[in-house]
Design a protein that fits this description.
By secondary structure, this protein is of the alpha/beta class. The chain is built from six helices and eight strands, in the order βαβββββααβαααβ.
């Protein structure tokens, strides 16, 4: 069992959902298809402080119907939005013990950058689970 956000955990994420280039695609049920009125891609940088490895940064990229997690080893893209929080909070969200909305409303996470881009992608982001159930079951937090 890999610890949440450790290098081994990112390896297990890639193995659980397939290897993308250069990220791991997440399940995309409910994402809108690309089409004539399709919105541009979205890059969210996730910054987690106070992890056992120190600060961990990775990216969630939405491109059409694909959602990729770009591990800290991948070259970063320019992010429109940054989501940040401490390890305990992000682990609570990932484990399902804490809702992202509660964490945000109680000041345990912060969102910065061009927040208006999030409103352009609600159908792509709503209900997206950033941790596949098979990986959640084998992750230590």
């Amino acid at each position: 069992m890999a610890r949440f956000l450790s290098p081994e955990w990112f390896d297990e994420l890639e193995a659980a959902v397939g290897s993308g280039e250069p990220g791991s695609p997440l399940p995309t049920e409910g994402l809108s298809e690309e089409g004539p009125g399709a919105q541009p891609g979205l890059v969210v940088e996730v910054v987690v402080t106070n992890t056992p490895e120190g600060e961990v940064r990775y990216q969630v990229v939405v491109e059409g119907t694909r959602v990729l997690v770009r591990s800290p080893r991948a070259a970063p893209r320019t992010a429109q939005v940054r989501l940040s929080g401490d390890y305990a909070t992000m682990a609570g969200i990932a484990s399902g013990e804490l809702s992202a909305l509660d964490a945000l409303s109680h000041g345990r996470t912060r969102v910065s950058g061009d927040i208006s881009t999030l409103s352009v992608h609600p159908s792509r982001l709503g209900g997206l689970d950033l941790l596949p159930p098979v990986l959640r079951a084998s992750t230590t937090f």
